[in-house]
Give the backbone structure.
Amino acid sequence: VEEARGDKPLAGRTIVVTAGGTREPLDPVRYLGNRSSGKQGSAVARALVDAGARVRFVAAHLSQPAPEGVELTEASTAVELQAAVREAARGADGLVMAAAVADFRPAAYNGSKIKKTDDGGAPAIELVRNPDILADLVAERRDRADLPGLIVGFAAETGDETSSVEEYGRAKLARKGCEVLVVNEVGEDKGFGRDENAATLLFRDDAPGGPREPEHVAGSKDDVARKIADVMAGALNR
Ligand code: CTP
Ligand code: CA
């Protein structure tokens, strides 16, 4: 059995990481998607592998190849991603939900390409809610011992007149019930598809060890990823 050592603090641990962005098909050629590149999730997977963890990597439409040394599963839609995460999470020590999961999907899939009509009109697209993968897993683990005790969520937030990025993050952390929430500030010039990132890690108040101050990290996506790996190693080895 491998043991946690200084340079491999996650040896012997299994961690599930999701990355990328889901696509929700409308017809055979069109989908509703988002701008996630999967770079931050891939960087987290790499940092966890470097720290000695066994990484089950669930990827949705990455803009670059998956990192080396992970066990790769691919998923396209939110429903597929949920099935893959459920499977991978069994017996895992940790889960990092870095994927951008579509909140809604088209209510109906058109088996053939949607065509324009001669009257100049446009179709309305009806949407239905997707499952909340993270919240569902947090709820499910209340009566299952084989699901990860350490769940890390991500939130891409923009501040507005009523609340700051961190205030929105706090509310989301409470709502989701995960142990850690990594809050990114996004906008036209930061976040998606970029190599640089700034994030605030928020910790659940009733986590083991008591309340903990937020941690701020700025730098490359690899810097943010290493911080997340450090925090996870600390939590799993305490
Ligand atoms: N998430 C998820 N399943 C969903 C939507 C989100 O598991 N259907 C996860 C994301 O992977 C992320 C976290 O939940 O780790 C927060 O995602 P975010 O979109 O910021 O939160 P939402 O609860 O969807 O809230 P919002 O209305 O702000 O989009
Ligand atoms: Ca969302």
In short: The pocket of cytidine-5'-triphosphate (ligand 1) is lined by residues 78, 97, 99, 101, 103, 130, 132-134, 153-156, 172 (CB under 6 Å). The chain has a mean pLDDT of 93. Helices lie at 39-50, 78-89, 133-140, 165-176, 221-236. Residues 68 and 222 are 15 Å apart (CA to CA).
